[in-house]
Amino acid sequence: MENNILSVKDLTVHYVTSDAGVCRAVNHISFDLKKGETLGLVGETGAGKTTVALSILSLLQSPPGKIISGNIEYEGKDLLKAGRAEMRKIRGKQISMVFQDPMTALNPVDCVGDQILEVLYLHQKISKKEAKIKAIEMLEMVGISGERYNEYPHQFSGGMKQRVVIAMALACSPKILLADEPTTALDVTIQAQVLDMMNDLKKNLDTSVVLITHDLGVVAQMCDRVAIMYAGEIVELGSAEQIFDQTAHPYTVGLFNSLPGYVKDSKRLKPIKGLMPDPANLPEFCKFAPRCEYKCERCEKELPELMELEEGHFVRCLHPHKKGVK
């Protein structure tokens, strides 16, 4: 579709290790990102969310990581076929990433202002003086006084470090922002401030966002569409309203059932039994079947395809729910 700025098609990524063998981290993932949209990638740790983001930016460490198949089209170009020089021009300028841990995303021996300046100087063909002025503007845009330009990362709190990382990612007004758990380890009030700021910047800069998270509250606040990931696959994909109000996959139902206060008349939390399967030893049938309370004999024999329940709402299940979470 012309409205899509990014299209990921049939992406498969493996990690080849000497001890565990082949870990199938991402398996035949497909999704589109529309212009100005926020898409949530939701799932447990180990579901493959970060691997998808690193693959988009060609930042996957190889070895052990290896893209087995697929296409990642950005404005009609297949990023998997782009050379290193071309990706350096795209990365940071057109597609940026907020990494999961702001503590390690910043260089401890450079002042925060110069780290933003470097991004601008490399990509925008402006003088260092002009880049410094813009870097100060970016700091102030994320709520940090320009007077703190020469301070070092250790002089900032966790929330302030995250603001600096976001300022770096948005310095060149990218068309796509990949935000990997941008509010992890932040207290609730700082989390709300960071999310509000990201929403404002998205509107002001008309940026498309891929938001990686396991926090369904953040998803409800930020996302237009949601992709639920499990064991390297998308098991449910739809608008935020479809995912929250017409939940179809048993795993998604389990996520909501485990939230305090989400299910009416529930006096106890209902956790999902068991653990996600080992990516080095994935079953050849439904990946969620070993933990699913609704499984039947077919579920442990067949690998379900992603099917469309209604326009824009897809689910990978042989027996999808039709009434959502009760």
From TrEMBL:
It is found in: Cell membrane. GO terms for molecular function: ATP binding; ATP hydrolysis activity. The keyword Transmembrane helix does not apply. Residues 6-256 form the ABC transporter domain. It is a peripheral membrane protein. PROSITE patterns: ABC_TRANSPORTER_1 (PS00211), ABC_TRANSPORTER_2 (PS50893). The keyword Cell division does not apply. CDD domains: ABC_NikE_OppD_transporters. InterPro entries: AAA+_ATPase, ABC_Ni/Peptide_Import, ABC_transporter-like_ATP-bd, ABC_transporter-like_CS, Oligopep_ABC_C, P-loop_NTPase. It holds the Pfam family oligo_HPY. Keywords: ATP-binding, Cell membrane, Membrane, Nucleotide-binding, Transport. GO terms for cellular component: plasma membrane. Signal peptide: none annotated. It comes from the Bacteria. Belongs to the ABC transporter superfamily. PANTHER family: DIPEPTIDE TRANSPORT ATP-BINDING PROTEIN DPPD, OLIGOPEPTIDE TRANSPORT ATP-BINDING PROTEIN APPD. This is ABC transporter ATP-binding protein. It comes from Wansuia hejianensis.
